[in-house]
Write a structure and sequence with these properties.
The complex is a heterodimer. By secondary structure, chain A is α+β, with helices and mostly antiparallel strands. In chain A, 24% of the residues lie in helices and 34% in strands. A six-stranded mixed beta sheet of chain A has the order 7-8-9-3-10-11, sandwiched between helices. In chain A, strands 2-1-4-5-6 form a five-stranded antiparallel beta sheet, with helices on one face. A five-stranded antiparallel beta sheet of chain A has the order 14-13-12-15-21. The longest helix of chain A is centred in the middle third of the chain and has 17 residues. The N and C termini of chain B lie far apart (45 Å). Classes of the chains: A alpha+beta, B mainly alpha. At the A-B interface, strand 7 of A face helix 6 and helix 7 of B.
């Protein structure tokens, strides 16, 4: 089971050029709005025709610009969950789910419908119309509708964007269960980092129509290979960096010298650390420990985010270090006299090449 | 008083609306979701033309096409299907004049439908033809109905093109508007008045039906009523 896509699409003001392979697991497409996530999915589904490239699904060529192959959507065997679900308002839940089954024998249709209703917990709702359903129910109907024709690839376009927080986590569990049972590859679009991390096995990070990085999620989050990947995986602290020795680096934007774990990348560009990896210590002889003062404090329900200025550094405010810590740690820290000591532990620092 | 103009009018308008319906919605389907371009602008202009030209011009053009000197006219006459001065001619004249209304309202209704609905149908195995019947048409049905009623009203009032192509043959091609004209010309003002009142009654009924349907349409847009 594999999907291979190497596509290029030129539009006025936007260029999509992506190439990737997805195996039988969930591949997340992560990127800001307008980075080309949806367009990639639409190309695979045959709703947009790429200008160049090739799309192969389980050995079937869906699209090949050179050979002039372009299978219409209806023959591609893709299941598509649209961002706003695109349920048919004039059809009942049952009719919506059976929409893609009409070429099958009646008996098979009923069997699949019953299985889908059971799996998605929709049994009491078959006669209802989409407008009579809650957001979560609509999402389940849309997912059931995409799954019943037994597609070879499942394309999910931000399935949770239209739902609020509480419902989200509940439905997320159900979706994970569904995806586990599904035998085929899944492409999952989101711009929510944590959601991507929970649901996907591998990630594609997109920016401006290109793949900035890809790989297993844990690796991407631990060692983002470049600054775009670092930013897209939620890293707030990035500084231009210059190598001093084999294990010392000068962080130009932060105004400090840091010890790092070798080896350095051949073309060192930036150094970064995630905001929750900054620690506050009392021993100033530790490596990478600097006196600092808070410039700004933002409280969230369980955490506090601090913007820090290192003593003696004249960095631009935009490049100030950000630290995130739990509320109880913050309660202790706030009582201490200035300067505080912040530590950028070498093992937590990551370096990116160009 | 001879009542035949009433029935001829209703029959002609119904037949013309039916004749304009399929070409109208197909033309609308063709242009509704295509990206803007020269071809689209040209086709749209052509489809709208009968609405912009005076009905007498339409009538004259139709005479050129269907008359004895026109190629199509000669072929049809040979087949025993003459158009000029026949009820068929009245239907054709009214259908041509009515077509732009059908096309425009249908196109507007189609354009209101979220294109993602159509994409969803495509990914579930539907051909363009089948999604047209299963998704697009049902979702735009209230708008289409308004188009049908408007077209019917326009066909009912058709005068110029009908007179030029089908003439004024009582009991055959004489519709109400034509009957009014010739009654006034013949000095029978009382007959003209009766026909006028009947026309007003029919028009009022049409407007009421239309309002009823547009009320349903708003309902449809806000919250769709299943059945």
């Amino acid at each position: 089971m594999a999907l291979y896509a190497d596509i290029e699409k030129n539009l006025p003001g936007f260029k999509l050029k992506v190439s990737f392979t997805a195996a039988e697991n969930t591949l997340g497409l992560l990127g800001a709005s307008g980075s080309g996530k949806t367009m990639t999915l639409r190309c695979i589904a045959g709703l947009i025709t790429p200008d160049r490239g090739k799309i192969v699904l389980n050995g079937r060529v869906l699209f090949d610009a050179e050979k002039g192959i372009n299978l219409p959507s209806r023959k591609r065997k893709v299941g598509y969950l649209f961002q706003n679900y695109a349920l048919f308002p004039h059809l009942s839940v049952q009719q919506n789910i059976s929409f893609g089954l009409r070429n099958l024998p009646k008996q098979e249709q009923n069997k699949r419908l019953a299985a889908a209703l059971e799996m998605m917990n929709l049994n009491g709702l078959v006669k209802r119309y989409p407008r009579e359903l809650s957001g979560g129910q609509q999402q389940r109907v849309a997912l059931a509708r995409a799954l019943v024709p037994e597609p070879e690839v499942l394309l999910l376009d931000e399935p949770f964007s239209a739902l609020d927080g509480n419902l989200r986590s509940q439905l997320e569990e159900q979706l994970l269960e569904t995806l586990e049972k599904y035998r085929g590859c899944t492409l999952y679009i989101t711009h929510n980092l944590e959601e991507a991390y929970r649901i996907c096995t591998e990630l594609l990070l997109l920016e401006e129509g290109r793949i900035a990085a890809s790989g297993r999620k844990a690796e991407l989050f631990e060692r983002p290979p470049n600054s775009v990947a670092a930013r897209l995986t939620g890293c707030k602290n990035l500084s231009r960096a210059r190598a001093i020795t084999t294990d010392t680096v000068e962080a130009l934007d932060w105004g400090c010298r840091l010890q790092v774990a070798p080896p350095l990348p051949t073309k060192l560009a930036q150094i970064g650390i995630r905001e929750h990896h900054l620690s506050f210590v009392t021993d100033k002889t530790l490596t990478n420990t600097f006196p600092c003062r808070p410039k700004n404090v933002t409280e969230s329900p369980h955490t506090v985010t601090l913007t820090l200025r290192l003593d003696g550094a004249h960095n631009h405010p935009a490049h100030a270090l950000q630290a995130q810590l739990d509320k109880d740690l913050w309660e202790t820290l706030r009582k201490q006299p200035y300067p505080w000591l912040v530590r950028l532990e070498p093992a937590k620092l990551f370096l990116t090449g160009e | 008083m001879e009542l035949s103009p009433l029935f001829i009018s209703l029959q002609t308008a119904a037949a013309a609306t039916a004749a304009a319906f399929f070409p109208g919605i197909l033309a609308a389907r063709w242009l509704a979701h295509t990206p803007p371009g020269k071809g689209k602008a040209l086709a749209d202009g052509l489809f709208i033309m009968p609405l912009l030209l005076p009905p007498t011009v339409i009538g004259f053009l139709l005479l050129l096409i269907f008359g004895n000197r026109g190629l199509l006219g000669r072929i049809l006459t040979d087949w025993g299907l003459p158009v000029v001065f026949t009820w068929t001619g009245a239907v054709i004249a009214a259908a041509v004049v009515t077509f732009p209304l059908m096309y425009r309202t249908a196109r507007g209704a189609f354009e209101q439908v979220d294109p993602e609905m159509l994409d969803a149908a495509r990914t579930m195995g539907d051909t363009e033809w089948s999604l047209f019947w299963r998704v697009l048409l049902p979702l735009s049905w209230p708008g289409i109905t308004a188009g049908i009623i408007l077209s019917f009203a326009r066909a009912l009032g058709e005068f110029g093109a009908t007179l030029m192509l089908a003439g004024n043959i009582p009991g055959k091609t004489q519709t109400m508007p034509i009957a009014i004209y010739f009654a006034v010309e013949g000095g029978k003002r009382d007959v003209a008045l009766v026909w006028t009142l009947i026309m007003i009654a029919v028009a009022t009924a049409t407007v009421l039906t239309l309002n009823y349907w547009s009320g349903r349409r708003q309902n449809f847009a806000g919250q769709y009523k299943g059945k």
